[in-house]
Amino acid sequence: YSALPEEEQALMTQFMTDTYMPVYEALKAREGELSQGESLLLQDLYSALLETGAMPDEEQALAEKAARYVGVNGEPDPSALDSDTVLTAVKYGTKLGGRDFYEAALDYARNTDNQYERRNILYILIQNSGESEMADLMKEMQGSDWQGQETWAVLQQAVRNTAHQDVAWGLYKASFDNMIARAPEIRKPQTPSVVSAFCDAEKVAEANDFFVSKGALIPGYERSLAQAREAGTLCAAFRSEKTGELVEALGEQDN
C-alpha cells in the first residue's frame, strides 16, 4: 500500500473495501463462534483493512482512545486501551491528533516507567508525525533529557517517516555528528541500516555515499551498509517493476 503513489492509494482502499470488507463483516458477526483459523483470518483482515485506509471510523475511534490513554485533555487514562491495541491506537492518534496529541504522547513517553512502551511510542511518533512535529522530535531527542541510546534509536527511525522522508533525511544528516558522538559503541556499526528505509535507487546511492563519507565515525560499518544497500536496491527495483502493474490491475477492478 505504501509503495503506491499517493494518488493511487485510493484505488487500493476501494479494492480492499469491495473485496475483503464483506468477509471481515461476516466473520465479525459471529466472532464468538469462530474456529482458530477463522479467528486468525479475522485478525489479519482487520489489520489489512485498517492499514489500507478501508476503516476510517475505526481509525478515528482508536485515535480517540489513544488521546485518553496519553492524557490529551487531562490525566492519562490507562484503562482507555488494552495492551494489545496501545501501539496501533497511538499510531492513529499520531496521524489524526496533530500537535495536541504529539505533545501529550511525548510527555507520556518521557514519564512512563515502562521502557518498552516508552521506546515504541517514540518510534511511532517519529514515523507518523506531521513534518513540524517530526522535526521538533528530532531536535528534542538530542537534548539532555534523553540517553544517547534513545537519541540514536529514534533518529534511526525518523527516515522511515515516508510522508516526510526527504525532510527527515536532511535533518538526520545535519544531526549525524552530534547523534553518533552520543551513541553506544555497539550501535555505531549498525547505523547505516537507515539506508534500507529508502525505496528509490538514487536515494539509496546518495545515502550510501553519505555513510561512506562518515566511515571514520562508525568503524565496522561496511557489512551493515552492504545489507541495507541491497535491501533498498531490491525495494526500488521491485517498486519500479511492479507498481505500474498493480495500479493497472486496480484500475481494471475499479472499472
What does this protein structure show overall?
The protein is an all-alpha fold and 255 residues long. The chain has 10 helices and no strands. It has helices at residues 9-29, 36-51, 56-70, 86-111, 115-128, 131-140, 148-158, 165-182, 201-213, 222-254. Helix 1 (9-29) runs antiparallel to helix 2 (36-51), helix 5 (115-128) packs across helix 6 (131-140) and helix 9 (201-213) packs antiparallel against helix 10.
Features:
255 residues; mainly alpha; 10 helices
Task: Give the secondary structure arrangement, pairings included.
Blueprint: H1 9-29, H2 36-51, H3 56-70, H4 86-111, H5 115-128, H6 131-140, H7 148-158, H8 165-182, H9 201-213, H10 222-254
Helix pairs in contact: 1-2, 1-10, 3-4, 4-5, 5-6, 5-7, 6-8, 7-8, 9-10
